[in-house]
Design a protein that fits this description.
By secondary structure, the chain is an alpha/beta fold. It contains 30 helices and 17 strands.
């Protein structure tokens, strides 16, 4: 064979294979081999061609600078970022099936390799944090890196992952934080997920579309559908079978918007190496299913007093399989298929009387398997779930149990889950509440403890918060745990501080170390201390929400000490978005801690009938709320306006929407973070203020206004009833105005307020 022919064969092979994916390339090799054999072609030519084909396929499997990864780099750092960092998908890095990334140098640039797309993006995140000292977080999800000099590692660092799965999200998150996210906001979140190695995120956007299509085919009227599917702010609890219809009805444009958004989210997740956890069929049907379509469905009673639950379709009903597969048919049309499906029958008190539980769980699992063979049932370990009957019935490997609150109640400690796979999860946030809280030290040890005790059963880590965009330090720690050794935790704070601010600072390290040992290290599962200023006013406030506490577990002087340390860097770090966010948050915590004890002083003065001190003290209390509103209004993540505007702006994505649509969206947004539900659920069900938010705009217009009414009533010898409070709060949900604070420098305000209340 002459050189030219040899060159042409090599060139042809390269072109062909480059245009195809790896699977198609392998098929092509088989076809070409068959042709050569049939035609009795020159053996030498055949060998050279096949050699070239195989070599090219190997090159493709390595995936030098994969396009989805270069796109990610350019999105988070600006155009041109991908040209300054070399990346490669190299499956051969892993020899035992565990994911691996390496950080080194090539061609005078940083060079990052990963054994999977997820490992590769994790390596990029690790490099940005621990080499370039760039921490992309919720307050700063993208940044201009064009002027940044990327350090070139002198030694190659290898990180092996101990977790097959890195899970993310809670049903509640989709309401408390994500209800009004746009495509742009989702794009940033998915990039954030990729940089932290998340590979099995819960994906719920579009489930309302699926159910609308299912019920239409099942013969339900639009009126019936509207009574069943919840509104934008309350999808989470509808999907968990806690309620029907609340927050709705949803107009046609909403469903169209959700389907488009759903396809974007899932496409981007899959592109970045994630396998979404989709909502499977767990037996839910509208509460009128027995009468409407003649099936054997049992009433599930009420949730939180004021909400009727959907019914549970008995697996013994002859139509169970038909309805399950109808659901999966429409799920696939809208969301595609997955290897993971989330189902939580009988969530938070659903009735099980008259249900053969073993048969129920077996049938639910069987229908999932019919739709997607070898898929896993992802189930939350929460209250009574997963029930013993489920663990006894489903074969090992069929369940992936989310130990939902490992950082608090840690149900795995009893005996694991009888040999079933489980994920160590950090719940952290209830209701989307703001405030510094967490269990830092137990987190450093908990995952490794579980891994040592149940090495065959622990399959990963997960974040299952009810709300996002608070305490980013805990999430950065959680998703680094599977890539580090236990002993590295001792120095983690120092590494985090430098990554967070881009400079090495003893003051910032000290500040975070103090916080990690005090307010971020709750000794009990009740880790989120609620701020008394967010409570319905009383002189003896014990909690804000029905399940919360205002009891302070930490030394408040330690938080002030941390603030003092961190304020030392105000000149050097002014303008740094991470510093602005954090110093506002820490000073906010010092002030809300202060109001807890100030309220006790107010109560004591009132009890003693010392009205002069009473009035002086409560005016200071009110001033603190005003000052907090001024401070927090400067930080976008701590702003009511961001929340309400994002809700209204959803309507701008669709041409046919009206001002009434915008008001409806804002009502969903305001109701969720105030009264939550109708009066019976808010009062008897204790849902009001469950999702309290220390936000600029809300502090002044909602919480301050309540406390002013309360103190004025006390001075006049009057009492405000719960009914009166609810009526006033409900009126606020129908408002669409916000008192805005003037724009100021948050660092200057933080220092000013800290000195005002705690200065010498």
């Amino acid at each position: 064979m002459n050189d030219r022919a040899d060159f042409q064969s090599r060139k042809s092979a390269f072109i062909f294979v480059n245009e195809l994916n790896l699977w198609r390339g392998l098929v092509l090799v088989r076809i070409i081999l068959h042709i050569f054999v049939q035609q009795k072609s020159n053996v030498y030519i055949m060998k050279r061609f096949l050699f070239t084909m195989i070599a090219t396929l190997m090159l493709i499997s390595c995936g030098r600078n994969p396009s989805q990864v270069t796109d990610l780099l350019n999105r988070v750092g600006g155009e041109g970022t991908s040209e300054r960092i070399e990346t490669q998908l190299n499956k051969s890095l892993s020899t035992d099936g565990k994911e691996v990334f390496e950080i080194g140098a090539k061609n005078g640039k940083p060079f990052i390799q990963g054994s999977s797309i997820s490992a590769l993006t994790t390596g990029i995140g690790w490099y940005l944090n621990h080499y370039a000292h760039i921490n992309l977080s919720w307050n700063n999800l993208t940044t201009d890196l064009s002027e940044v000099t990327f350090p070139v590692p002198e030694v190659t660092e290898r990180r092996d992952c101990s977790a097959d799965y890195r899970y993310y999200l809670n049903y509640c998150t989709y309401s408390y934080s994500m209800a009004f996210w746009t495509k742009e906001r989702w794009e940033k979140e998915i990039d954030w997920m990729a940089l932290r190695g998340i590979n099995i995120p819960l994906s719920l956007v579009g489930t309302d579309v699926v159910w609308k299509n299912v019920l239409e085919e099942a013969g339900y009227s639009r009126e019936d559908i509207d009574k069943f599917i919840a509104g934008p702010g309350f999808h989470a609890w509808w999907l968990m079978s806690n309620l029907e219809g609340w927050g709705g009805p949803n107009p046609d444009w909403w469903y169209e918007r959700q389907e488009n958004l759903c396809k974007f989210i899932l496409g981007r997740m899959r592109e970045l190496g994630m396998e979404p956890v989709l909502p499977g069929y767990g037996g839910i049907l509208p509460s009128n299913a027995a009468e409407k379509i003649g099936v054997d469905a049992i009433d599930q009673g009420n949730w939180c007093s004021g909400f009727r639950r959907p019914s549970f379709l008995l697996p013994t009903d002859e139509r169970f399989g038909e309805i399950a597969q109808l659901y999966y048919k429409h799920l696939e049309k809208v969301m595609g298929k997955s290897k993971f499906y989330s189902m939580d029958p009988f969530h938070e008190g659903g009735r099980t009387q008259g249900v053969n539980l073993k048969e129920a769980f077996a049938t639910i699992y069987s229908e999932m398997q019919k739709h997607s063979p070898d898929s896993k049932w992802v189930i939350q370990s929460w209250i009574d779930n997963p029930r013993k009957e489920a663990l006894d019935t489903i074969s090992k490997g069929g369940f992936l149990v989310l130990d939902l609150y490992s950082d608090g109640t840690a149900k795995w400690k009893e005996k694991g889950y009888d040999g079933h796979d489980f994920v160590w999860c950090m719940l952290h946030n209830f209701g989307g509440k703001t405030g510094l809280h967490g269990r830092f030290e137990p987190m450093l040890e908990g995952y490794f403890d579980a891994l040592e005790r149940f090495p065959d059963d622990v399959k990963g880590v997960g974040a299952t918060p009810e709300g996002l965009e608070t305490c980013p330090i805990l999430y950065d720690l959680l998703f680094e745990l599977p890539w580090m050794q236990r002993e590295e935790g001792k120095e983690w704070i120092k590494r985090y501080s430098e990554a967070r601010y881009g400079v090495k600072s003893e003051a910032m390290e000290n500040g975070w170390d103090i916080l990690a040992k005090s307010v971020l290290n709750c000794p009990t599962p009740s880790q989120d201390v609620e701020a008394v200023i967010c409570a319905r006013p009383a002189l003896d406030v014990k909690r804000v929400s029905g399940w919360g506490t205002c009891q302070i577990y930490h030394d408040i002087n330690k938080v002030r000490e941390a603030a003092t340390e961190m304020l030392k860097e105000k000149v050097r770090l002014k303008g740094n978005p991470n510093y602005e966010h954090d110093i506002a948050d820490v000073v906010r915590q010092t002030l809300t801690d202060y109001t807890y004890y100030l309220l006790k002083d107010i109560a004591a003065s009132y009890e003693k009938k010392d009205m002069k001190s009473f009035k002086e003290q409560y005016n200071i209390f009110l001033d603190v709320i005003r000052d907090l509103d001024r401070l927090l209004s400067q930080i976008e993540l701590f702003s009511l306006e961001k929340w309400t505007v994002s809700a209204r702006n959803v309507c701008d994505e669709v041409a046919s929407t009206t001002d009434a649509d915008r008001d409806w969206m804002e009502w969903n947004a305001r109701t969720l973070i105030s009264v939550w539900g109708p009066e019976k659920a808010a009062e008897e069900g204790s849902l009001h203020d469950y999702s309290s938010r220390q936000w600029g705009g809300m502090l002044k217009d909602f919480y301050l206004a309540r406390w002013e009414m309360f103190f004025n009533a006390l001075e006049q010898g009057k009492t405000i009833t719960s009914q009166e409070w609810f009526k006033w709060e409900e009126n606020w949900t129908h408002s669409n105005t916000i008192t805005k604070a003037a724009e100021e420098d948050p660092v200057d305000i933080a220092e000013e307020l800290f000195n005002k209340y705690f200065g010498n």
